[in-house]
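agent> fetching stored inputs for the NAP docking request
agent> found them:
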Amino acid sequence: MSKFQLKWGILATGGIAESFGRDLSVNPETRERNDIEHVVVAAASSTSADRAQAYLKEVSAPDSAKAYGSYKELVSDLNVDIIYVATPHSHHYQNVMLALEAGKNVLCEKALTVNAAQTEALIKKAREEDLFFMEAVWTRYFPISIYARETASSGTLGTVERTFADLAFSMPPETSFDPKNRMVNPDLAGGALLDLGIYALTWVFQSLYTVQKNPKPPTVVSAVRKWESGVDQQTSMLLTFPRDKEGDAHGIATTGMRCATDPDSNGHAPAVRIQGDKGELMVFHPAFRPTRTKLVLKDGTVEEKNWPQPGPGKGSGFRNGFGGNFHPEGEGMGMFWEADECAHALKEGRKEGKFESLNESLVIMKVMDEVRRQNGMKLPDKIETTDYPVDL
Ligand SMILES: NC(=O)c1ccc[n+]([C@@H]2O[C@H](COP(=O)([O-])OP(=O)(O)OC[C@H]3O[C@@H](n4cnc5c(N)ncnc54)[C@H](OP(=O)(O)O)[C@@H]3O)[C@@H](O)[C@H]2O)c1
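agent> prediction call returned; pasting tokens
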């Protein structure tokens, strides 16, 4: 049987683009995906073709892969099937629109855009052009997330009444004064909410919203503490999910940059607690790449599971990670699961991801809009605009 080959064009060459590119080089058969393959056929850097060339080398792309010094050249490459957008979220709207206008399918990093109006405009454009478009919330596509959603919807926990979810790190207070740091710079859409809070919201949504037959958007109340630059340093959200039969469910999603979910970052502390009247499922830190769960039921059942990421294995020399922290040799980062979903969708002719519809991405973006509105957090106009094209 011939395999479906997906030809990737990588837009930007930063930290996450490197992790994603390295994961694309892992044979899908190592995770029992025998019908697809991925190949990086081109990459572009906003700074120079040399930088793009260096990136292609770093991710072991084939020698034939093209290196471009502008995003425009990349989206015009006829050999590219899908563009992976990995710029800061401030730039997603402009970059995704560029790719869609050029007739390319798109996988775009989280947060999909900085506001719901931009997400809505991109969804409209993708539908008009009949193109595939998906938010790269990689965690949704992990086997551990599939298990968690099944546990939440199967009745194992009884009726799920509430979910606590947190993603927070402890960064030094002087972080605030570095304008080059995209986490605190308003020009790069900095702040905890859009970068980290989206993972807390992901777990709240996938346990309380995605699993419902006809989910209704939640309401939210929130509290925020800001950095001096005006973007959020610590944000807490209380969401109410309306349900017809069982009564409302509550989601408590928190994020921050001063006080960590898991102080030693070794996965000792639960990041997520999905609770029903018969028991709870804990998912251990980090919420974006968890590898351990613990099910505790009222009847005395305690079930711990490990969810290691597959990969080429020990002795392969393969290593992947993010921000200088590498996982053990042979272990994938886990970004290939979302890439596989893109391949399967395009193979089957689907225009959206299976585990997070575009509508759900939009509902989550509306929640984040409302949190920003409640707390007076506005980004520069050129970042919030739906005008296109705008030079950033
Ligand atoms: N899925 C995950 O776990 C995960 C983890 C981290 C980040 N992310 C998301 O991925 C996106 C990128 O994050 P990152 O950590 O990779 O950021 P990064 O290391 O700062 O890289 C961003 C890249 O975007 C390009 N870029 C274009 N215009 C830019 C500008 N004005 N300022 C800075 N960079 C610019 C640059 O590449 P070129 O100049 O070479 O084009 C740069 O290397 C964000 O939306 C973030 O939320 C996701």
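agent> quick read of the result: The chain has a mean pLDDT of 97.
agent> awaiting further instructions
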